[in-house]
Amino acid sequence: MSGNTFGKNFSVTSWGESHGPAVGIVIDGCPSLINIDINAIQSELDRRAPGQSDLTTPRKEKDQVKILSGIYQGKTTGTPLTLIIENQNQKSSDYHHLNEIYRPGHADFVYDKKYGIRDPRGGGRSSARMTAGLVAAGAVAKVILKDKLEISILAYVNQVHQIKAQINPLQVTLQQIEATPVRCPDSQSAQKMIDYIKEVKNNGDSVGGIIECVVKNVPIGLGEPVFDKLSANLAKAMFSINAVKGFEIGNGFTAATLLGSENNDPFINDRNQIKAQSNRAGGILGGISNGMPIVFRTAFKPTPTIGKNQQTVNRQGKKVELEAKGRHDPCVLPRAVPVVEAMAAITICDAFLSQFKE
Amino acid sequence: MSGNTFGKNFSVTSWGESHGPAVGIVIDGCPSLINIDINAIQSELDRRAPGQSDLTTPRKEKDQVKILSGIYQGKTTGTPLTLIIENQNQKSSDYHHLNEIYRPGHADFVYDKKYGIRDPRGGGRSSARMTAGLVAAGAVAKVILKDKLEISILAYVNQVHQIKAQINPLQVTLQQIEATPVRCPDSQSAQKMIDYIKEVKNNGDSVGGIIECVVKNVPIGLGEPVFDKLSANLAKAMFSINAVKGFEIGNGFTAATLLGSENNDPFINDRNQIKAQSNRAGGILGGISNGMPIVFRTAFKPTPTIGKNQQTVNRQGKKVELEAKGRHDPCVLPRAVPVVEAMAAITICDAFLSQFKE
Amino acid sequence: MSGNTFGKNFSVTSWGESHGPAVGIVIDGCPSLINIDINAIQSELDRRAPGQSDLTTPRKEKDQVKILSGIYQGKTTGTPLTLIIENQNQKSSDYHHLNEIYRPGHADFVYDKKYGIRDPRGGGRSSARMTAGLVAAGAVAKVILKDKLEISILAYVNQVHQIKAQINPLQVTLQQIEATPVRCPDSQSAQKMIDYIKEVKNNGDSVGGIIECVVKNVPIGLGEPVFDKLSANLAKAMFSINAVKGFEIGNGFTAATLLGSENNDPFINDRNQIKAQSNRAGGILGGISNGMPIVFRTAFKPTPTIGKNQQTVNRQGKKVELEAKGRHDPCVLPRAVPVVEAMAAITICDAFLSQFKE
Amino acid sequence: MSGNTFGKNFSVTSWGESHGPAVGIVIDGCPSLINIDINAIQSELDRRAPGQSDLTTPRKEKDQVKILSGIYQGKTTGTPLTLIIENQNQKSSDYHHLNEIYRPGHADFVYDKKYGIRDPRGGGRSSARMTAGLVAAGAVAKVILKDKLEISILAYVNQVHQIKAQINPLQVTLQQIEATPVRCPDSQSAQKMIDYIKEVKNNGDSVGGIIECVVKNVPIGLGEPVFDKLSANLAKAMFSINAVKGFEIGNGFTAATLLGSENNDPFINDRNQIKAQSNRAGGILGGISNGMPIVFRTAFKPTPTIGKNQQTVNRQGKKVELEAKGRHDPCVLPRAVPVVEAMAAITICDAFLSQFKE
Predict the structure, then answer these.
(1) What ipTM is given for this predicted complex?
(2) Which end is more exposed in chain A, N or C (fewer Cβ atoms within 10 Å of the end residue's Cβ)?
(3) Domain spanning A5-355 has what CATH number?
């Protein structure tokens, strides 16, 4: 296949372009008899939608999800589940000026070279709009994980530029995350982030950051040895999200600076349950979940679209100036939070359905 | 499948246990008519082998690779290539004391819970010995990439504990890397690393670090949109290596602290070739190679086996002390260097064969 | 995955139910820069549609295909191509009486047992309506094969009940096939088949038959050794079509009654081209295309829906009589002809794209 | 991948060439804690081995199976199971005369064209020797199916040339099958077949036939809608066996000559169990097992190697005579019986593990 399917057991095929008729996903492998509430999917999409606050791009598109297959009388039937989000804005004219120009930091150039053609409208297939489909698929995965295992998945912004939040992953709540438009549950840091993002926006620039994600109630034994390690699939899942440049789990890059005696998690017997005393591993040992909360972090680069003119070249290799047009998204992280959760949910659901079938 | 195959076009199936009869790999998708020199494979394995220096475990096993299929008169035939490395040490008795004990930081516990059984000898399938097969497969991928595209892949240690080397990825040579047993091409830092690792070893401890990898001459257009991004598959590939806890590409986690205007790579026309002026992206844009060198870093935790007694529990949940036995590997990074190169080679070869067939 | 994707390089994911909002397919792996004429897809669908003649079910649904992704300015972009056919008839009430009853020869019973739930409207996912998606995907495959290799694929009815047509596969034309509503290019046999099907219909019964398919201009070398033999994938493709119970290639079952000296095709040198003198193999040797026309036959059972009352049981195991309701399709073969062509096109396109990438 | 792996859940990777060092298979997805008796695997291999009777080729190779991974203390560990059979005869010289010649009915020509190289020794990868690996993998699948579901799989020869046996599939026993060297449980027909095969052999010719297979105790619900139908995967599995040219299930090609009222299997309530009254469907409805015995037939062409000189061409296209050398196998069917069983077992085990885990 050509890379548009993720997962072997809960397998998500993504399709669509930013300004084509629709974006959508097909889920193959969804168990039958799961109650699907379309409102639950819609509210995840609403968290990803633009225009939620003055921190994000104001483009006003309504991402309305529809179910095209796989459901009968509100329940999954075990057959492929197709979710579709129609694009409101399909006007080609808006993007006419980008037909021939290679935007710095964007995929225009590589698509042209790879395919000999690209859909220039809003980045086509390389647009972050593709994450709408991922969020919809992730919403289904979340329902399954909640339903079968009481698994909860929460992501939040824990760094923007140099502003690092102080957060205990085990105590974060959805309410805290949703309390501020920046989706950082440390309210003090959140305010600093908001102020900084606004400043960056006013300067016509954008800024990167880090999203942390914590997954609780994961059963022991998810993930496979060697290649389909749960950590490896989470890494791949996160790198499927636009603008991701780094991933670490548990102690992550910090583990590189530690001694074995500092980094090992001793096993203990806690009321007749064997568990790790600490969680430096981040919930995964040898690629397999060990029953502790899974904690990982994903680094996002600043969005390449900025409000400043930039030097670049066009398709013919001629030097041109890319004019800043319209308003830009100064920080994608708040809107990326539900995408991180979605890809984590898809990955864990896939591992779960590989291990346990009913 | 159950996670023991990596890649869709150059697909590597790994099998074996640390102390079973053999470890091996099957490569399906190797193009025909490639000249395979078994000595080239053997010398990559020799770089991974234990006992190369006093920095590593002295266990003296000879990793002799044999080809069991896919070759006729020195050339690949296009049919599956099977490489096998027989295990010298299959004595079960050596590991008898580990049958029932859960070593901290190791996969014993999760294997037992996942499968209800595990091969306790040397960690069985979770052993770093599995990387011998990966190195063998990677050696074949390297030959193909060299043969067809003049691609070169070099990895090296650029951090051990807090000792960070000063290295220009574009100027590193294999000779510089192999010049010291720690495989760090910055000779001053190398010496500090060696001294520190010996100190750690004497203290009965182990230490983590970071390996950087640079891949040159990658053609534009490798990798797929959305899910099979080249960056995503590299991330997954690296997390397939034992002890890896983090991965970043280009500016990586640093990109999280930058502005868009600082992180974008402007396009220029360099003697009628469109290219990026800088390489903050690390050679990959929108998941697809852009023709610049691919540069990424992988964080390794310190090996969990240390020369100190540790508290843990056994299979029955009884508190026990894990005695330090034999000699341990104070720092896996020097031996992991060829493994990082191998997994990079496999990943890029897979993407290449997906894009270009003959 | 759960069985709703066919092909590894030209990979077709099917989704939808008979009376859900829509049926559709996603093609991943379609090369870029292919001109797609939606009318070409539509006319293949029109060949499959019901109500073409009085030989088929008169249900009047208009199968209008729409493209939702993967095309820009009439050309494929190399990204997933999504084709959708909205269902006109979504009224659940029509099928209310089938909610609880297990129709003989249908999949109602096995779906209920497998999933614990099923969409009873028109058979849901087990409906022959799924072949509409296959025909749409096959139309795209045909365009690629025509465009790149001048491959032509023709199927036709060559047996209905005991009426066997006399046909030279190498001389059949599309015009001959489309000349009669039964799609049998032997006009004498065609008339007998038409008469017989009408008689069967009047008797409230249905009848089976055989479709033959011939593929010309297939390059030498498509198909893989051992498991992904071209013949094996064609067999699987044909068994993906509703009502198929048998498949044979070249001499097929007749080869079982022959001697080696009678069945071998000698090689000859025909104007400096090595080829087989005869084509008893049906164009495939050792699973790999040998450059001769591929000729195979597919056996269809009579449709299980008939115009007579039948004894059966309901979900509770109670004996009930299934009443014949509405009009039935006395012979699916004429409408199955484009489906056989479509699945052959998909299979060969998949093998072609595995072998040759541009 | 390149076609050397079969199955998604019980996935079998085949490798090796006829006269290379070894042939083997890797099974990924084998459940843990299965007791594997290597003698059970060996005796299946012995049924496939040449030299069992004067009906087959006398080549005296001993196919001794070894387990290289995936077993600890006689039990599967859930990690890849590798089985290997070393080739005794690796002398290249024996096949020197075939280096340049294209044998009629063999894959020499297509391999040369596909790969630009081939291993000419005994047909290399296209040799029926590959089925030794399949039989070994099938033996493991049989153990799992027996262990978990009491499934039994029996195949037997039911036609050689025009000699058709009279057999009730539901009453055949392994003893009856193994009673004669031709593996036909109808002893009268068996004798005719034996006499005829000897006659054919003396004439320097070979002969084809049909193998029937019956699988009992298959649970309801194996197989997927649309593409991974159990029937479709069985068809593909059978076409993976050398010399197969046809496949049919239940009424098969005969269904093409029947009316719906004759071919439908009515459902009945048999002691509170819903089942089909007859088994014209052959145990599969809509691609999914319905709990009735699965019954299918596979047509084999006569082996192309015969004891007569044949006209053909060499690699340069020059007309040459292929000399009959050594002794040939006049009828592969008796030795193909365990191969049919093996591929049926692999297919059903794969479907079973997709549906039911742990």
Answers:
(1) 0.97
(2) C
(3) 3.60.150.10
